[in-house]
Write a structure and sequence with these properties.
This protein has 277 residues and is of the alpha/beta class. The protein has helices spanning 38-43, 49-64, 69-82, 88-103, 109-120, 133-142, 171-184, 201-205, 217-226, 248-254, 261-264, 266-272, and strands spanning 19-22, 124-132, 147-156, 159-166, 192-195, 209-213, 230-231. The protein is built from twelve helices and seven strands.
């Protein structure tokens, strides 16, 4: 679980290309992306009512105060076991059908504008999130990102085993960023990164131009010590009013990967984020 090992491509020569790496939850969108899909998964029969209530509680903790590492690990272990046996195609279909209704109201206007500015400057935009690939990739496509990286789970014969192939969290985010930089010729010294969480400190330290967005208490302290820019994103905006939305087929194809972590990484990811300021 320590290496990104994404699609194999030939490394490009160093070209000084600039990338902007964005965390997803509380940076691009106002809530936990994974937890937001608990109700559609309930309606699709993947989780029961108790699971919905647990996700609602996790979303409350995520929004208010956060959780300690032990709580995060217990929830992660429980939910990854819960998703074992889920059908990949069913999960992908549910995400495709509900993605825009769920995510549209959550995107920060400030984040959308920042993404647009980076693209106008010729920068690649990369979303890097601990949420599942099947959620991260479509959202990244919706906002016009060039690439995305999310947590990836193992699937055998079209069903999730409950095992994690790549956990895109903490230091692993920095690992993924460096591997993407090597393949795509990014100069990390002149590249940007944005996040709200102190758990993403390795990601922020991997680039020469880090900025913090709606930072938790720990990250705000680090930002003050290192004189990093502190941004406040407060205005959700509809993506439909700003970006071309890909067709359902395109979203379905892009969403290949981790179905299970939509809920099975839900509270695990959501609970680890702290918002104390």
């Amino acid at each position: 679980m320590g290496s990104y090992a994404g699609p194999v491509t030939e490394p490009l020569p160093a070209s000084g290309r600039v990338a902007a790496f964005f965390d997803l939850d509380k940076t691009v969108i106002a809530k936990s992306s994974a937890l937001a899909f608990s109700r559609p998964f309930f309606q699709g029969g993947l989780i029961n009512r108790r699971g919905v209530l647990k996700s609602a509680y996790a979303q409350f903790v995520f929004a208010s105060s956060g959780a300690d590492a032990d709580q995060v690990e217990r929830m992660r272990a429980h939910l990854t076991a819960l998703c074992a046996g889920w059908d990949v195609e069913q999960v992908r279909s549910i995400v495709e059908e509900t993605l825009h209704d769920i995510v549209d109201p959550l995107v920060y206007a400030e984040a959308a504008e920042l993404v647009a500015r980076h693209k106008a400057d010729g920068h690649d935009v990369v979303v890097v999130s601990a949420s599942g690939e099947e959620i991260v990739a479509p959202i990244a496509a919706m906002i016009g990102a060039t690439h995305s990286v999310g947590t990836r789970m193992v699937a055998v014969a079209g069903r999730y085993t409950g095992e994690i192939d790549f956990y895109c969290y903490g230091p692993n985010k920095a690992t993924a960023i460096r591997e993407l930089a090597e393949r795509n010729g990014y100069d990390l010294d002149v590249s940007h990164a944005y996040s709200d969480s102190s758990t993403d400190l390795p990601m922020l330290e991997a680039v020469g131009k880090p900025s913090v967005v709606n930072p938790d208490r720990g990250l705000r302290k680090v930002a003050a010590e290192r004189e990093w820019p502190v941004l406040a994103f407060t205005k959700p905006v509809s993506l439909r009013s700003r970006f071309h939305v890909p067709s359902g087929t395109a979203v379905a194809v892009t969403a290949i990967g981790l179905g299970a972590v939509a809920t099975a990484g839900a509270a695990w990811y959501g609970l680890h984020r702290k918002r104390r300021k």
